[in-house]
């Protein structure tokens, strides 16, 4: 089977090799500092005994799993620590498909493009449900799309790329739809610390054997390079997920897990609030410039992204590259995220140069 290379890499490479200064707004790599407690945990680890430099337990360090379990209100035996949120989603989607309860995976449109890629890799069939214009998801649309062939429903809240946040009633309805069709809801909650609406609700708030929650510390602590994530499985799915995880990755990084544990135990909540405030200010700066440019845009309630549409300038790959050349701003083409927003662009507000990018777009389109 041939796999399509994600467009992220093509656009990033084009921007890096451009003949001018470019503001990178392609990927969600936070530019702010991790908490000091995380750096302290890494330094502490460097002086550990040599035995601590070997394989970690495959399912993750017990202390870390216990810390996560206490925070999420589950048993530590339900948690598998993974190689980032990407592997957590892979394990969850694989578990949904391998039960033999169907081969269809319901995805939203627009969608984070790695979900369709994983669906193809796992031999599943993609079925898309469009969101509303503001990125919110109507459970009735999911219910209409679901059938006995549905193995899995994958959602992401706060959402990449729209910034929408799903409230409790939406999450409960999605779990109920999964239960009605013997499917599994996979709820990717990697941006949970970047909810600015106060409406975020974890799928863990619903007691069900038909939901798997995935998360990662990549965004939470601004450490996308550490690759420490986790999935919370219902008890009957844990052993199968652990077996696949062991075969794919053996285990994830021991020093990274230790540093994350140290950060969980020693980071003041003010750290997260400061980052949310920083992003709120960047959203205001960026959308003010989009107003000057006469653009239509999403007003995100969470995550790192703004989607924008410029009249007469659709978000194709060719126009994304032209925007790099003409304005020195690198975003992502809307067509990378599906059909519903294929004439839009997505911009990641994870650069201290948001104001410069905003000015360039206002000048280009204003």
Automatic annotation (TrEMBL):
Q: Supply the EC number(s).
A: 2.6.1.-
Q: Which UniProt keywords apply?
A: Aminotransferase, Pyridoxal phosphate, Transferase
> A GO BP term, please?
amino acid metabolic process
Provenance organism:
Haloarchaeobius iranensis
Provide the Aminotransferase class I/classII large domain boundaries.
21-352
Alphabetized PROSITE patterns for the sequence: AA_TRANSFER_CLASS_1
* Protein name as catalogued: Aminotransferase
Gene3D superfamilies tied to this protein: Type I PLP-dependent aspartate aminotransferase-like (Major domain)
Top class in the EC scheme: transferase
> Which Pfam families does the record associate with it?
Aminotran_1_2
So which cofactors does this thing need?
Answer: pyridoxal 5'-phosphate
